[in-house]
Each structure stands twice: as structure tokens, then as C-alpha cells.
Amino acid sequence: MARGRLRIYLGAAPGVGKTYAMLAEGRRRVARGTDLVVGFVETHGRVHTAELLDGLETVPRRTLTYRGADFTEMDTEAVIARSPQVALIDELAHTNVPGSRNAKRWQDVEEILEAGIDVVSTVNIQHLESVNDVVEQITGVAQRETLPDEVVRRADQVELVDMSAEALRRRMAHGNVYPPEKVDAALSNYFRVGNLTALRELALLWLADKVDEQLDRYRADHGIAGTWEARERVVVALTGGPESQTLIRRASRIAARTKGADLLAVHVIRGDGLSGTRPDWLARQRDLVESVGGTYHQVIGDDVPKALLEFARAVNATQLVLGISRRNRFAQALFPGVGVATTALSGSIDVHLVTHEHAHRGLRHRRSAGPALPPRRRLAGFVLAVLGLPLLSYTLTELRGALTLPVDIMFFLAAIVGVALVGGMWPALVAAVSGSVLLNYFFTPPLHTLAIAEHEDLLALGVFLLVAAAVSGVVDLAARRSREATRLGADAEVLFTLAGNVLRGERALDALLGRLRETFGLDSVTLLGRAPNALPAPGGHGAGTDWKVIAAVGGRPCTSPDDADTEIPVDNDLALALRGRPPTAGDRRILEAFAVQAAVALEQQRLEAEAGRARPLEAVDRMRTALLSAVSHDLRTPLAAAKAAVESLGNTEIRWTSEERAELLDTAAQSLDRLDGLVADLLDMSRLQAGALGMAASPLALDEVVPRTLDELGPDGHNVSVRIPTDIPEVEADPALLQRVLVNLITNALRYNPPGKPVLVTAGTIRDRVELRIADRGPGVPAADHDRIFLPFQRLSDRDGHTGSGLGLALARGLIEAMSGELIPEDTPGGGLTMIVSLPRISRTDRP
Question: CA 367 from chain center: how many Å?
């Protein structure tokens, strides 16, 4: 059976009309004869939305009981059994009630799609996982119901239901979104113009990215290589040279001229990996690209213009920025350069050739890594040439009558190839010149003179010399390339080992410097940073500057770059100082890579330190936000009730009966008691956060504190079964605080425990701890939510019908931890939740 098709209506905020648009689409399909059912639609009490449901077949919902309350969810099995052509399913990101077939509604939709049924659904931009944190920063409201972006990206159609912020606020004011009593609060909080405008932009940008994906897929499927200028994309080609920073800034200005334009930087690496570009330069250029909002890419290709244009066409680029060639005039006459060649092949892509201060100054190549072969091999080649060629000449003179001159030349050529294989180019060139002289003297008429009688013999000797020189050069080049490849392989292995060591290590910077010291056998490695307010010396990192040691491994660290045997500069304010054997020229490249990684590791440590300093501030900010939320919502209800009761009692125009007056007084007293409890919880939580909670711990017997707790619970205490052994050890705790914790835990257990079944309180000893267990037989809490129930100002379900600020369990855990204890949730065998209060025991010898 073919998978069904998914169509999603995406909105920027509640109330823009997603459900209305979905139902209108459903009615259009029914009018065309489509077999359509409503799997789940939430009207939220909106009259016009509810009117569209008339006449549409609706699959009955499934009723589930959770924590003593009834909830309705979509009956996925019934929808699949009904097997319509299309199902309308609202709120794709909805979290199902525990006990449902799936945890999320989008998972239900996946099953329906797999059954071959088309689905039309709705979702708001704040429910997408990738933008959830951004939405929270904008609105200040954390969205708990999210779904993976991939679910929406896989949809066959995504249609934006758009509405301006002003129009949506007018709908709110007219009562078309929320009930009248909620309109003022909504307009002044979540539905502010700035919030709605930002959410609308998020929705438009997210949908634009999906449209880009669809366009790229369409172009790939249809083999379209030309550029479609749907969006401005600027690609800047980086050589890794000093001019690249100028190109990046120029390309950034070009991209900034068009709103929403993309900036992409690309560096082409030769296919053999021997690019010769300094890693620290590339790292700085990558940082610059990212700082101006671009993305950095690398591609491999020997034909640079072709590789650039293939990348540009693959990303549907509209403009390509390149620098004027650094080659001098003579070199450009022989080869026009990458810019000219790319412009000739660019087609519909606009090419910008940007001048810079390094143009036409010539390419500065690195010094060669040294001879292709070691000295011993070269010496062996010279010995072979000096001894072998005379021996060959003597042997061939003995056979002069049997061999002709061409055969003699072939023997000499073979000897020179042997010399080239052993000693490389220079011994082979010496052998070639010496061989041509010996051939002329001993085998070319007139013999034993350097004169040549025949023109053919002169031509043969000339060709011999050229071939011998060419073979020498080819053999030497092959040896050099082999050595470079071996070196790069070793470098790659070192970097691979380095990366693994850094990822596994707890202190990345120390692990990095330690690996560098081990790899090159150095005495010490020091990372130096310029001290604050120190000025760089005119020559760079030399004397006259103040440096400080950031990290060091090995022996005595260097205090400045001048103390080092080898200095590897990272930037103007950072340098790597090495003590020990000087590295070879070939080692400097890997050392520069180490230096760049050291700078990255240092930056990572700095960011981690800043994040560590910001975490307490973030926690305080979250607490402040949550406190304001609690004050504005949870405290408002008892305060309003108490105020209404007192104002009613003070109204002299109404004659209250004694029963009514007593009821009003009781309402005011209960509301004020609740208000007093909430304020006490808030104050205690703030003291816990500040570490200023007063506590007087003393030896305490559980068989004393538990009965007092049950007395405080009143009639509810009769629904608690206590089984505490008489020989249970005393614990170290504050009596008042522990009793307060137990009241909270037992009250929660009674709230969710089934009627007729008592809450069980038991105690036991484990090593040096005493554990008090409060077990209920309620619906329990999923293991994934065990930590979440202890977060301040949060309840596990916002729809369980219970009131409160959500501080109880958070405060209970904080109080227990302040007494050096632990509060641990675990599943009750057979169903339910057990809260374990673990406190340090006191033995008889510990008592005063």
C-alpha cells in the first residue's frame, strides 16, 4: 500500500486561522466527492471554526483517565479502521495523555500515513524543535510541546497561513481567538506586536528554507545546471593567501546590499592534498567568514575554475567574487589565471574580479622540503656513476666488434636509469654527461678523440643526453612526490591521533600541548599570550613586550618567545614557544596546525569559563521570571478571593445572614492561609537559591516526626499506613523542615492515590543512611520525567486540575539536600510512585 500524503498548514502564532483553513480545505474536498473524516479538531470555542465542522464525518474520540481526570484523544485505531481517503488531524505537535497508543500526535499521524491515508494537519512555528529556544527568547514563554523539524520537512506540502500582527491583534480584541476575560492578558504579553512580528519572520524564513530544498531537489531531478536567481547567493573564492580577507569583506558588502542574501566562502584543495596553504591563515579566514554571517566550505579539485563553478552552480549562486591574480605580468602572459578562466566559463553567474594590494606581485612559494632522497642514497648514486660507467665502457670495448653504436647507447641509458633510481636526479645528470663523453671517446668514430665524424652519431648522442636528463628528472620527481605523500600521511595520522586525544581528554588545551611535546620529542611546550594593555613590538613577537604563560607542559616553561628555541606565532597576541630540538622545515606545517588547534582549545576554555559564570546568573534570571509568573498567576487567585470576601462583608447595603457571613469569613481565611503558604514557599525557595536558609539540625527519631506529620494532615492522615521499625536509628535533620517535607510528600501521594487504598510509609537502613519511603498506588510518573517534577514553578501536567505554584517538590528536594540528604523518586512495584527520603543516620556512639 502506498504511503499517504501529508499536507501541513504552518502558522506563526495561535489564532492566525490554521484550523479554519484546514477545515475549509476539507469541505472543498468533500464537495469534490473525497471520502474524508475528521480525526481530531480542536475549535478552542471559536464559533466560526465550529461552524465548518457541521456536515463533516467525525471519528469519535477515545477517553482516557489520568490522575483521576478524564481526557479525550484521537482514536488512531478507529481512523485506520475507517480507512478514509483523507483525515483532518489538528495540532500535530500535541503531546498525548500517558497511556495513549503513542507519546506524540505526529507519531499517530505517521501510522495513519503508513496505512495509505492522506492527512491534513496544522502546526505553529514555535512547536518546531530547531526554533524552540529562539521563540522562548522572543516571547519569554517556554514551549514544552515540540516535534522534530524533519517531520514537517518530509511533508508533501507545507502552506503558510499568514496574518499581520495588527490583524491578529484585532481578531483577539474582537474575541475571535480567546474568551474576553483572557484577551487583555494575551495582548499585553505573548501577543505583543514585536513578538508576533518576530514569530512571523521566523515562519517565513523557515518556510523559505524548505522551498529552497524543494527547488534544489527539483533542479537535481530534472538535471538543471543553470542558475535560477530565486535568491541572491554570493560565493567568494579563497586562495588562503593574504588577499582573502579583502575578498571576504568585499563579498560581505555585496551580499549585504540584498536583504536575505547568502554568503558562502569556498577554498579549493588540490586533488593530491598538496595545497601548501598555511593552516593558520585558513583558520583566521574561516573565523572572518563566520563573523560576517557566511558559511565556509572546502572542495577538492585539480582544475580550480571548474571546481569553483561546479560548487557555485550546485548552491545556485548568482554572484562569484574572485581576486585579481597574484601572478606577475610574465606569468600571466603564459597562463591568464583562475579569474580570467572562471569568467570565460561562468555562464549566467556574475563574476566580480576584485583588486587588492598583492595583485601582480608574484606568488610566494614555500621553500622546498629538502632533497627527494637522503644523502646516503645520493652518495651511492655518485659512486655508481663514477665506478659503474668506466666498468661498462671497458666491457663494451671488449665487445666492440659484436655491437653497434645504438646498442652501446642503450646499455649506457640503462646504466643511467639505474643511477637515477639509486641516487636521484643529480647523480643521474652527472652520469648522463659522463656517459655521453665516454660514448664519444670510445665508441664514436674517430675513436679516442672527442671529434664526431658522422652527423647521425652527433644526433644520437644528443638524444641520449636529453633522454637521460629527462629520465633523471622524472625519477627524482616521483621520489619527491612519494616523500611528500608519506609525510602528509604521517601528518594526517598525527592530527587524527591529536583529535581523538582532545575529544577524549578532560582538559583539551593541556592534552593538546602534551601530545605536541610527545610527537616531536620536545623538552617543553608553552602557550604564551600577550598581557593586557601590552603593545606588540615592531618586529612581531620579540622583545619589548609583556607575555604571560597560559598553559605549559614538560620542563621549564618559556616566559617569552625570545626564550624559546622555536617560536610558532598564532596571531599578534598568541604564540607557541618550544624548547628542544629544532623542527625541520617539513615539521613546521604540522606545528602550525597544532598552534591553530591550541588557539581553538584556548577559545573553547574561555567560552566554557564564561558559560560557567553565566549559569548562576541564568539560574537567578529563571528564578526571577518564574517568581514573577507565580506572583502574577498563582497568588492572584487567593488574593482576589480574599479581597472579594472582605469587600462583600464591608458592603453595608447588603444584609448578610450569620451563615453567609461565616462562609465569607471562612473563604477569606482559607484564601489568606493559601496566600501565606505560597509566600512562605517562595521565600524559602529564594533562600535556598541564595544559600541563606536557616537550619538547626539535631538528632531526630522518625517515629516521633511521622506521627506529628499525620496530625498536621488532619483527617487525611487516616489514609496513611505507617510501618516504621522501633529500632530504626535516629537521623541528623531539622525537625520543622523535615516535617514540612513529609507533609508535602504525603499530601502529593494522597492526591494521586486511588480511593480506598492507603499511602504506605516505611523506613529502613542502608549502610550509613536511613531511608523513609512514601509509596502511592497512583498512575505514577514516567522515568523520563523523574527529574522534571523537581523543577521550580512547574507541574508534570498543566491539565490535571490541581492548583499551586509548582514549588512543592522543588522546595522539598532543596530542604532535604540542605540537610545533607537526598530525595529520590522511583516506581512503586505494581504501579505508582515512591518518594525516598534518604538522610544520614546517627549511631549511638555519635550521640553527645
Answer: 40
